Amino acid sequence: MDSVKSLALVIVLAARVAAADPGAGSAAAEVHDSWFDKRVSAISVGGVYAAVGTYAWFAWFNGAATKPFYFETPDWGHENPFALRGYAGGADKWGHAWANYVMVRGTTELLVAGGWKKLPSSLVAGGIAETLFAMQEVKDGHIWGFEIGDMAMDVAGAALGVAMENLPEVDRMLDFRMRWWPSSDFRRLWRAHPWSRGDGVDFTQDYTGMTFQLALHLGPVIGSDVDELWWTPYVDVVAGFETRGYEPAQAAPMYSPYQTYYLGVGVNVQGIIDRFASGKLRSVGHGITEVWALPYQTLRLEQGRRTWSR
Fold this sequence. Notes:
Layout: H1 5-18, H2 38-61, H3 91-113, H4 118-140, H5 148-166, H6 168-173, E1 174-180, H7 184-192, E2 210-217, H8 218-222, E3 235-244, E4 258-267, H9 269-276, H10 279-291, E5 298-307
Antiparallel strand pairs: 1-2, 2-3, 3-4, 4-5
Helix pairs in contact: 1-3, 1-10, 2-3, 3-4, 3-5, 4-5, 9-10
């Protein structure tokens, strides 16, 4: 099963509000408001996971039929993040990586905002995330099947989150983002069964509405000291991946499921926010746009497609 994407964004928002302005980098500053101390920040992390667990229970597990533990697929060919013949075409694996990445970064910043040190906070955040996501995957093993690829991408996403929190030079250059807009097939399920397990309530399975991106900021790479390069802080080079037609199931199948890979250029919204905003607005805006891609933010220059002709 995929992870709780929108709740992960709420974590980033809460961390940004609690933390002081992080400046040009994306990590929260290691200072905190008087009321938001170590104890409150730790309780906040617990509250985040309580919210995630509550959602997961109602979206995936409540009333689901159980069976003896089993693995969903026997080989890596159906479990890797580019598996054309997987049930989500690999988008589910990228969703796991992204959600773990955001959970680790968000909960790390909550802890740092309360006065905890950055490195141990990130390691604790990563450990908590992987422990609880592993428990979720074991639970899946009794319902839909344990997926090795899910666990591998959970770990990869969490490791990237820890690295980005502790390597500000790399963090200033790279973003791992997702964009989601409800697909027509998901909206159909929502209208028919808005609170049904696995249907309308489970927005995390709307892979047809998702796109995943790795963005390289030109500003920190090229520099903007030369007058002719003034524009580099506002431009990204973007590599993207998405799948269409896998999940949710098409109401009336009109095309074969396919994967799309693309390269393009995009607007570095963070660069604009850092330049023209200040205080909490700057902090919150920077944090959200670091992990969430906006519509029409990227112009695709080259793309390829792989189609699953069943």
